Amino acid sequence: MSLSGKKPSSAAAPTPAAKPSNAIAHRQSIENDVHKALFAQPVTDLHTHCYTPRFGASPQPGGLLLWGIDELVTYHYLVAELYRVITPAELSYERFWLMGKSERADLIWRMLFVENSPISEACRGVLTTLQRLGLDPNEKTLEPYRRWFDQQDPDAYVDKVMALAGVDSITMTNPVFDDAERAMWENDPAVGDDPRFTAVLRIDPLLRDWPRAGKKLAGWGFKVREDFSGGTADEVRRFLGMWLDRMKAIYVAMSLPPEFKYPDPANPIGDRFIRECLMPVCADRRLPWAMMIGSRLQVNPPLKDAGDMVGKADVQAVVNLCREFPHNKFLVTMLARENQHELCVAARKFGNLMLFGCWWFLNNPALIEEMTRMRLELLGTTFVPQHSDARILDQLIYKWDHSRRIIGKVLVDKYLDVAATGYALSTAQIQRDVALLLRDNFRQFLSR
Ligand code: HDL
Ligand code: ZN
Asked: What are the CA-CA distances from residue 288 to residues 139, 200, 251, 316 (Å)?
């Protein structure tokens, strides 16, 4: 039965596969359309660790907006890779962290970009960024780059990076349990007011470490008890509402361990927090809960931010949440490659589940291609293929350059598969699909 309700007169004879007059020319024209559409389409980057300049900019002590060559080269992904080519016996973690930022950057540049081939994705990303900024990626020291970056003004540089990256909005991550950042919000309620950025309330400790988080809330004047008795649920809802309003947050976010379960008989208080606090507050405000699941933190603590690891997680927790809370919206990404297919199938079952990104250790060409191909084949265009997760502003340039090219490669293959059936694909359709993938799916999911 067709959607119009009319029974077709007879099953139409299958049209013969299109006989492309010139398969190569046909592929070329689709490649051109897809490439043009992708690089013309502004991205709304739904998860980053970038900040408005009002939070202070590096190298200002305590500045949260990280940018420039020394931040790029000391990104924690590269710290982990440095300790693949040197050993703690040669340079102890302690001595490494006692070095100044520029000294650490000089060491990483020499070891990963001069004495070894910068072939990893994190290394290549730095080179792409330099190239797109019009700088020569072959310098043997960082001095020439430092001279160039010293001439940049952070606020104007935000515009420059967004233009080069083709990003129209940067979504921040705002961890309310971070004392330094919370103080900035309390001292300057307008700190997040910048049309180029939106805020996100990040609340990991409420689920990952309730006893400690609960004590902090009590210290801030919320009448909460560790056993969640009395008016604790009301007070936690008040806490969430106050910060969501203060930040004008567009969603609530958490990074969760591989062991995350819902319901979790071993964590009844966590279940109560989700059921009685987080879900009602998000539903009332029609805000998604972004769950980033599978981060096993600090497996090698001396590496600091570089010391986190991945673990296989339980997709059934996501399924249970989507089913129990049909009026809530869930933005979900998982860190283990092994979880991706099951998570994709879960998204076929729940319209309130939006998959996003190739997160962290998945943000590499080989895995972005695999995941994007699988998602297009299972979900059509109803997902958000990428977020940058950029910690350093300049990374937006390479993360979106690389991802656009990989998404484009997969889209061309899938469009050619469709064209081979004789289906006529228009440039406008390609532009529409690309807009959905890079911006509109996320924006429409927020406004649903
Ligand atoms: O928890 C998160 O948001 C992760 O993205 C971490 O920030 C992680 O350290 C990271 O930077 N991943 O790319
Ligand atoms: Zn992140």
From this structure: 45, 10, 5, 19
The total of other beta-carbon atoms located within 10 Å of residue 51's CB is 27
- Compute the mean pLDDT over every residue in the chain, rounded to the nearest whole number: 96
Cβ of 255 less than 6 Å from ligand 1 = yes
User: How much distance in Å is there from the Cα of 216 to the middle of ligand 1?
Assistant: 23
pLDDT digit string (tens) for 347-405? 999 999 999 999 999 999 999 999 999 999 999 999 999 999 999 999 999 999 999 99
Q: Is 298 in the pocket of ligand 1 (CB under 6 A)?
A: no
Q: How confident is the model at residue 17 (pLDDT cuts 50, 70, 90)?
A: low
Q: Is the CB of 305 under 6 A from ligand 1?
A: yes
Q: Which atom of ligand 1 is nearest to the CA of 308?
A: 9
* Beta carbon of 297 within 6 Å of any ligand 1 atom: no
Question: Could you tell me what percent of the chain has a pLDDT over 90?
Answer: 94
pLDDT per residue as tens digits for the range 38-77: 999 999 999 999 999 999 999 999 999 999 999 999 999 9
Candidate of 50, 293, 295, 368 to mutate for ligand 1, largest count of ligand atoms within 8 Å of Cβ: 295
Give me the domains of the chain, ranges plus CATH numbers. 36-447 (3.20.20.140)
Q: Which amino acid, residue 311? A: G
Q: Minimal CA–CA distance to 368: which of 394, 333, 396?
A: 333
Closest CA to ligand 1's atom 10: 360
Q: Is the full-model pTM beyond 0.90?
A: yes
